[in-house]
Write a structure and sequence with these properties.
The structure holds 2 protein chains of 2 kinds.
Chain A (H helix, E strand, L loop, with lengths): L15 H21 L14 H21 L3 H5 L1 H18 L1 E3 L2 E7 L2 E3 L1 H17 L14 H28 L3 H5 L5 H6 L4 H19 L3 H15 L7 H27 L2 H11 L11 H11 L12 H4 L11 H33 L4 H25 L17 H19 L7
Antiparallel strand pairs in A: 1-2, 2-3
Chain B lengths: L4 H4 L1 H26 L2 H10 E6 L6 E2 L5 E13 L9 H8 L3 H12 L9 E7 L1 H10 L6 E10 L6 H4 L2 E3 L2 H6 L8 E3 L2 H5 L1 H5 L3 E7 L5 E4 L15 E3 L3 H10 L5 E7 L4 E8 L10 H12 L9 H4 L9 H10 L8 E4 L16 E4 H7 L2 H12 L7 H14 L21 H8 L23 H13 L2 E3 L4 E4 L12 E3 L5 H14 L17 E9 L2 E11 L6 E7 L5 H18 L5 H9 L15
Parallel strand pairs in B: 2-10
Antiparallel strand pairs in B: 1-8, 2-3, 3-4, 3-5, 6-7, 8-9, 10-16, 11-12, 11-20, 13-14, 15-17, 18-19, 19-20
Helix pairs in contact in B: 4-6, 11-21, 14-16, 15-20
Classes of the chains: A mainly alpha, B alpha+beta.
């Protein structure tokens, strides 16, 4: 570099690639919001009666927030990590009682004409708190090393504490606010725990559970499924060491799996109708009315599918422009991309989001401080979860869970929260050479 | 905690997992966006609707450029049930004069298949312009409703209902057979409306419009690149003379029958009357038609029946003209061939009967319409020695008769014409047994009775052929379509009949002229100032009194008009039909009537209601 950057400069050490990718995504997001709510009568982009006008305000304020974060000393986030967590969690607890009801959801604090969802800010707070807890030098969470039973409780204690950092907001937001989308995001922090040593078996069990859940709903005859499970268990004996221990493990896996299969139907029956329907829509089981329950997903697929190779052209999408897809400026913003920019545009968006996430992982891995690294993984995991679930539901690979596409979807709270989430990490990364924590 | 080296590898697993998910998503996108075409079709169905612009149906002019058929705007009230919100139901019901229950019934109908709450459908059809005006003032109260303007037929004069026909909504059978027609389209059902449907209907315009999710129109697809404009239907220039038609219909009031007038030099139909008739305006609009149709349909005088084209009547004595021509052509008789008539046909014991005793030659036989003379003639034509079998002689006669039109479809431009009937050898073989019938068995054919039937249009065509001395043009009612005024070539081609020698025709025409002279059967109906030629007929039939038939043309040289007329169950042709025909000829040729008493008398006759002001029958 020809010019050495001033170490006191605000932007010293700031990863330009990340910031540029961020800016690019936000800009593309805005373009698509404009297209989604495009209206010939309101073409002025600064028209704040329209969502793209409002989004411009959100973007401006998000930039201010980003600057502020870069201004504040990186130590601030480390020191006050638990405080952030505590305060935001408290707000989440209070919002059902003090907040304003918007669209039937009691998760908003009203500020003038704008609303703010504290649950959105729980993400970075959880990331910080988790990073603080896990970066404790003497802490070991369950690693891949085999443990004797007596060690389990001691070691699992820390794991359980770590897990409760994400379970607490999950429960508060799900139970008190009934915001499944906002709540389920916290599951993504499991990836952070995995990176820090949680046994892969937990993840595999999780995946197995999901697979079994799906199978037991899709396969009508439960007995067939259990017979298949039994056969798999028996066949697996041919490949593993036939010790008593393995026998017990395999046996209990089989019993658990069968129990899970049997329980699934019961659990499924207990789900709320709209949740059942979402699962039905995704798995293509049961009777789905494309005019009602299945409408969103069906219309989203039509919009995206009709985009073809290179799309219909900017502002030329008929499906999005004429409101065939509900929520097309927020959770279903990807439809606009799919319809107007086609396969090429959609792939670019996915690749850009992927690039940002991988860049964050890359940056996280170069941190000398565990805190920064763990927080970085938190950022990457949360972003990944949002992108995967949001785009997944747009293209019919995931059930409809109301969560936004990072940097893309319309909405101040989500843009702010993702900006805060990312820029705290950018700040931590910028400081990596200065301080060793 | 410390960053163990072995945990460092996990970044690859995590990163790899992220990349894997991204790849799966991109593959999925590739599938639904590039490979699977179904979504593109569905998107089209979602947002693009083809709207039809209805063109104006072509108007119809008479031969002098006067409107026979015009268009008038009609107003359909359309409803899109989903958009009906806060509609002032009471006001709407009051304006349309319907009950609340009826309102709900119609809304329900608009919601059910094949309609849909999202689609507009007709709520009230063809409102009057007055109702439209009152409705228009309050339209802002009726959200979800709008008025669609279409045009309906308007007949300035209540005439020629059978000729013009009417338009109606297409039925399922038509929409299935012909993809041009969609539900709710109109099509010509009868008459000219049907015969010239393709010219009259024009070309429907198609607009592809974009709709939003609420089915609201939001613009045109591709800025209307694929839209086509509606092309108005072509005007028809009819051959009809409105004044003659109107006059004829006036004279035929109170009578059952038909009159067809043709210009022989072109085959153009000048008037075509089927009585009783009805006001064609009664069939304009679905509501009007559904109200009036059953009434007319159940009328015992069959006003919907187009007698001019479809009623197969025995021609009676008028048929003797054809016999006279064929007889000369076969060399069986000539102008001077005479017969003595003892008041009946002797070989069959005096049947068929004839009026009075007289000696006649060919010309006077025609003038006095001698049954005996033509019975002999028919026998002679069919029983000639040159034929091995009687059946061959009969077939020869039949073939020549049919060349004049009877027993065939003339190929006119009006739909549903009946062919009439000239009985065949097979028919008689079946009735009497093969070889067991001969000339005298069926001799009444020779005087236009028995199984022989013609429709009035064919009768007129026979006169036209005689007036032309050997050929006819296919009678037609349209002489020009659209601005270029073209018509099918088949209407400008001469059709030559089996008898060609001019001399034969002159002999027959001499007889016809005598008909209007003292002692002739139509002397009372002579037309002052013109040499007209005619032939009376009194066709016996199983339905009561004889049908009164009369055919004529005028003037003798260079004929301008031929007319054939028939009044059902009236009696003698010279008494009933000849005066009406002669009045029409006079009206057409001079534009005025010199015999107002006759006109008044004929007009006053009401055979349907039993009023008969003619006290004496003139034979």
């Amino acid at each position: 570099m020809a010019l050495r950057q001033n170490e006191n400069s605000l932007f010293y050490g700031v990863d330009k690639i990340t910031v540029l990718t961020y800016a690019l995504l936000v800009f593309m997001g805005w373009l698509n919001i404009y297209a989604a709510v495009y209206n010939e009568e309101h073409q002025n982009i600064f028209d704040t009666s329209q969502k793209y006008g409002k989004q411009l305000i959100w973007i401006g304020t998000a930039a201010l927030i980003a600057f502020s974060i870069l201004l504040i000393d990186a130590g601030f986030y480390t020191v006050f990590a638990y405080w952030f967590y505590g305060i935001v969690l408290l707000l989440c607890l209070l919002v059902p009682y003090l907040g304003r009801e918007i669209k039937g959801s009691k998760s908003w604090f009203g500020v003038g004409g704008f609303g703010i969802q504290p649950a959105e800010f729980m993400k970075f707070a959880t990331g910080l708190a988790l990073a603080k807890f896990l970066s404790n030098e003497n802490l070991v969470i369950v690693s891949r090393y085999r443990l004797r039973f007596k060690d389990l409780i001691k070691n699992y204690k820390n794991t359980l504490i770590a897990v409760s950092f994400l379970v607490a907001p999950l429960l508060v937001i799900k139970v008190l606010q009934d915001e499944t989308g906002l709540a389920i995001v916290f599951v993504s922090f499991i990836i952070v725990l995995y990176r820090e040593g949680l046994s892969i078996n937990f993840l595999l069990f999780g995946i197995l559970a999901v697979v079994l859940f799906v199978l037991s709903l899709v396969v009508t005859k439960i007995s067939t499924l259990i017979i298949v499970l039994a056969s798999i268990t028996l066949v697996s004996f041919l490949f593993i060491k036939r010790s008593m221990r393995n026998l017990i493990i395999a046996g209990s896996v089989f019993v658990l799996a069968s129990g899970m299969v049997l329980a699934t139907k019961k659990v499924y029956e207990k789900l709320e109708p709209h949740q059942k329907v979402r699962i039905n829509v995704l798995l293509g089981i049961g009777e789905v009315n494309l005019k009602d329950e299945g409408y969103n997903v069906h219309q989203a697929k039509i919009a995206i599918g009709s985009g073809g190779w290179a799309g219909k052209g900017y502002l030329k999408g008929t499906q999005t422009k004429y409101n065939f897809v509900p929520e097309q400026d927020t959770d279903f913003i990807f439809c606009t991309v799919g319809e107007e920019w086609g396969f090429l545009g959609s792939a670019v968006v996915i690749l850009l989001e992927l690039f940002l996430i991988l860049r964050v992982i890359f940056l996280a891995e170069r941190q000398r401080s565990s805190f920064s690294r763990i927080y970085g993984y938190g950022v990457a995991s949360a972003l990944f979860f949002h992108v995967a679930v949001n785009i997944g539901m747009n293209i019919g690979l995931m059930p409809v869970i109301g969560i936004p596409l990072p940097f893309f979807s319309y909405g101040g709270t989500s843009l702010w929260s993702f900006t805060i989430l990312l820029f705290i990490f950018i700040k931590l990364d910028a400081n990596r050479l200065l301080i060793l924590r | 905690m410390n960053n163990n080296a072995h945990l460092g590898d996990r970044k690859f697993i995590i990163g790899g997992f992220f990349v894997l998910v991204a790849i799966i998503y991109i593959f999925r996108l590739f599938y639904i966006q590039v490979i699977d075409e179904s979504y593109k079709i569905k998107a089209q169905q979602n947002a693009i609707e083809v709207r039809v612009d209805y063109p104006q149906r072509g108007v119809v002019y008479d031969r002098n450029g006067k409107y026979l058929v015009k268009n008038e705007p009609s107003y359909d009230l359309m409803v899109t049930p989903r958009l009906v919100k806060g509609c002032d139901t009471l006001a709407l019901c009051q304006t349309l004069e319907i009950t609340k229950a009826e309102f709900l019934k119609r809304i329900k109908k608009a919601c059910q298949a094949p309609n849909s709450p999202r689609k507009e459908s007709i709520f009230e059809k063809q409102m009057t312009s007055q109702r439209y005006a009152t409705l228009q003032e309050k339209m802002y109260l009726f959200k979800g409703f709008y008025v669609q303007v279409r045009s309906v037929r308007k007949y300035p004069k209540p005439i020629a209902a059978h000729l013009l026909g009417y338009v109606g909504e297409v039925n399922k059978e038509i929409t299935e057979k012909n993809p041009y027609y969609l539900d709710g389209d109109y099509i010509g059902i009868t008459g000219m409306e049907r015969g010239y449907e393709e010219a009259l209907r024009g070309i429907k315009g198609k607009r592809k419009i974009l709709k939003d999710v609420h089915n609201k129109e939001v613009g045109s697809f591709m800025e209307g690149k694929w839209d086509t404009a509606a092309v108005a239907g072509k005007s028809l220039y009819s051959t009809l003379d409105m004044d003659l038609q109107e006059y004829g219909e006036r004279l035929m009031k109170g009578k059952k029958g038909a009159i067809v007038a043709i210009e022989p030099s072109t085959g153009e139909i000048l008037a075509i009357i089927s009585a009783p008739s009805y006001d064609p305006n009664l069939f304009v609009g679905v509501k009007e038609r559904s109200k009036n149709y059953p009434v007319l349909r159940n009328d015992s005088t069959l006003p919907l029946f187009n007698r001019a084209l479809q009623a197969m009547y025995p021609p009676g004595s008028t048929f003797k003209l054809i016999d006279a021509l064929i007889g000369q052509d076969e060399g069986v008789i000539n102008r001077n061939s005479g017969r003595y008539c003892p008041g009946g046909y002797p070989p069959m014991g005096g049947k068929p009967k004839c009026h009075g005793r007289h000696s006649v030659d060919l010309v006077s036989a025609i003038a006095v319409s001698c049954n005996t003379y033509f019975s002999y003639l028919f026998f002679d034509i069919t029983s000639q020695k040159k034929f091995n079998k009687y059946a061959d002689g009969f077939s020869n006669w039949r073939k020549k008769v049919m060349s004049f039109g009877p027993g065939t479809h003339l190929g006119t431009d009006l739909p549903y014409d009946a062919p009439g009937n000239v009985p065949s050898v097979n028919h008689y073989d079946k009735v009497f047994g093969k070889g067991r019938w001969y000339g005298n068995t069926i001799v009444s054919l020779g005087i236009g009775q028995a199984e022989l039937t013609l429709v009035p249009l064919q009768m007129a065509n026979v006169v036209a052929t005689i007036a032309n001395k050997g050929y006819y043009y296919v009678p037609h009612c349209v002489k020009g379509i659209g601005a270029e005024k073209v018509i099918d070539k088949k209407y400008t081609e001469k059709h030559y009949v089996a008898v060609q020698k001019e001399e034969y025709y002159i002999n027959v025409i001499d007889g016809m002229q005598k008909c209007f002279e003292p002692g002739g059967t139509a002397y009372a109906s002579r037309i002052p100032g013109f040499t007209a030629c005619g032939k009376t007929g009194t066709a016996e039939n199983p339905h009561g009194k004889s049908h009164a038939v009369f055919m004529a043309f005028a003037p003798r040289d260079n004929p301008k008009i031929v007319i054939a007329g028939l009044i059902e169950n009236a009696g003698f042709g010279g008494t009933w039909t000849a005066p009406i025909v002669s009045l029409m000829i006079e009206k057409y040729l001079t534009g005025k009537i010199t015999r107002p008493e006759l006109e008044k008398r004929m007009e006053a006759v009401d055979l349907i209601r039993g009023k008969n002001l003619l006290t004496t029958e003139v034979h």
